[in-house]
Amino acid sequence: MELGSEVNSTIGEHSFFEGTFAVNGNLRIDGKFEGACLYVDQLEIGPKARVKTKIIASSVIVKGIVIGNIEASRRILLFSTGRVLGDLKTPELIIQDGVIFEGKCKISPSKIKDPKEYIDMLYAGSREKADE
Predict the structure, then answer these.
(1) What are the sequence ranges of the domains in the chain?
(2) What is the pLDDT of residues 77-91, one digit of tens each?
(3) Which three-class secondary structure state does DSSP give residue 82?
């Protein structure tokens, strides 16, 4: 979510939602969400939010607590108040000073299916084959 972009849906500070949730557009969570998966275009997790789920989105901003894996097709931004326990997968990751993150991180453009194989080919000097 771009800072200042319009939010379509909100889970308020004193609200709790549980289950699988799909949102067409932007979502801001200030309350608590637990479930199997959260599908959303752009997601902002506020500083008091508590989220326990797998997140699939185009971009994610984390200011609160997330337990679960995050997969973003565009970007993940972890603010200084962010606390994440889970794996991250995205082409762009921004981490501010003060973040607590425990997990694995995979950063690569979505067009590269196997980053390890791609880097090995680049190292071996096979740039043409790697870019196929």
Answers:
(1) 9-130
(2) 999 999 999 999 999
(3) coil
